[in-house]
Amino acid sequence: MRRYIAFVTAVTLTATLLVSATAYADNEPQTFFLEMESPNVAEAPNGDRVAVTGEGTFTVNPKSVEAEGRFTHTFAGGGSLSGTWNATQLLEYQSYGCGVVFGSPIPPNLCGGALKMRVTLTVGTTELDGILTVFCVIGPNPPNSASEGITLVVPGIINFNRVVTGENVYVRLD
Hints:
Blueprint: H1 2-26, E1 30-43, E2 49-60, E3 64-74, E4 80-98, E5 100-101, E6 104-105, E7 110-123, E8 126-136, E9 149-154, E10 158-160, E11 162-165, E12 169-172
Antiparallel strand pairs: 1-2, 1-11, 1-12, 2-3, 3-4, 4-7, 5-6, 7-8, 7-12, 8-9, 9-10
């Protein structure tokens, strides 16, 4: 009986230490560089499209973001308008992992995930708030339905909710 209690105690202690170490690692600051050099395109249900480029850094724990870029809204009926975007708040980052894309190894500091940011969109003197989500499929754990690209929601105005094309990357800095 004593051997059983000693075994259970050892297993429990080991499990507790592993869980604590994992939780601690998840709470470590992680800083990434976001690069969207090529236009990432999304489409709204009415056929309008938006093309977004940009770059910046974001940190997970504590949450922070400094990113900016350009966008072009092309209307389904013709015409377009262009402006800039500036990230104002990191809402969420869901990591897909690093160092592999579609099963092939790549440098270990190249990472993927879903990055959701509150942004200010500026066209001339008009500013609107939006939510920009950037999807990068690098990593061993992207959802089966994930596509490389972006979505952009401008509440009450338009929802570019279908990823059309994209190419972006998160480079882990620390």
